[in-house]
Amino acid sequence: MNELLEDALKRTTLYSDGRLYAFAQLPAEAVTDATSILAELPDPFSALLIDKDEITLVLPTHAWETLAARVPGAVRERDDYRLITFDAVLPPTLIGYMARISAALAAAGVPIFPFAAFSRDHLLVPANHFDQAWATLIHDVGLREME
Asked: What's the rounded Cα separation, in Å, for the pair 130 and 112?
C-alpha cells in the first residue's frame, strides 16, 4: 500500500463552485484572442491548453457567446460541465492519485476531463453526471466534502 497516496486521499476535500463550464476548440492562430478572453473573465476557474494543432479553452458557459462572436471558427462541445476540485496540496511526485480517482469514476460510468494545476487537481464532468461523480468520490474513494 502506498502510504503517501493514502495520506493524500485522507487530506483531500472536494470543492465545486456550482457553475456550468463549456469546452471550446479554437483554431491554432487564435491564441491571442483566447488569452484576451480569459484575462477579461472574473470567474475563478478557466483553462487554456495549446498544442500544435488546436487551442482548447474551458470557460464558464456564460462567456461562450463572447468567445463565439470574437473568434470565428470556435467550436463548442454541446454538453455543459461541472467542476470538481480536489482541495489538497499535492506533491508533483505523487503516484496513483488520479489513477485511483479515475478508476472509481470509470467504474461508475462517469466521463472525466482531468486538469492538473501546480498543486491541486481538478476534474470537469458532464453536468448530468455530476451528482453521480460526487457520490462516487465520497462513498467509493473516501473523500470528504469541503465544509
From this structure: 10
When the candidates are 3.10.20.90, 3.30.70.260, 3.40.50.720, 3.40.50.970, the CATH number that belongs to 3-18+81-145 is 3.30.70.260
Each residue of 91-123: pLDDT tens digit?
A: 888 999 999 999 999 999 999 999 998 889 999
Is pTM beyond 0.70? Reply is: yes
- Per CATH, the number for 20-76 is 3.30.1370
What are the backbone dihedrals phi and psi of residue 71, each rounded to the nearest 5 degrees, phi first?
Answer: -125, 90
Query: Which residues, at least 6 apart from 59, have a Cβ–Cβ distance to it below 8 Å?
Result: 21, 22, 24, 37, 38, 41, 43, 46, 67
Q: Which residue is it, cell 503516484? A: 95
Q: What tens digit of pLDDT does each residue of 49-59 get?
A: 998 888 999 99
Q: Strand, coil or helix: what is 94?
A: coil
In the chain, which residue ranges form alpha helices assigned H by DSSP?
Answer: 3-11, 31-40, 64-70, 97-107, 130-139
Q: At what angle do helices 97-107 and 3-11 cross, to 10 degrees?
A: 70
Q: Does 20-76 match 3-18+81-145 at the fold level? A: no
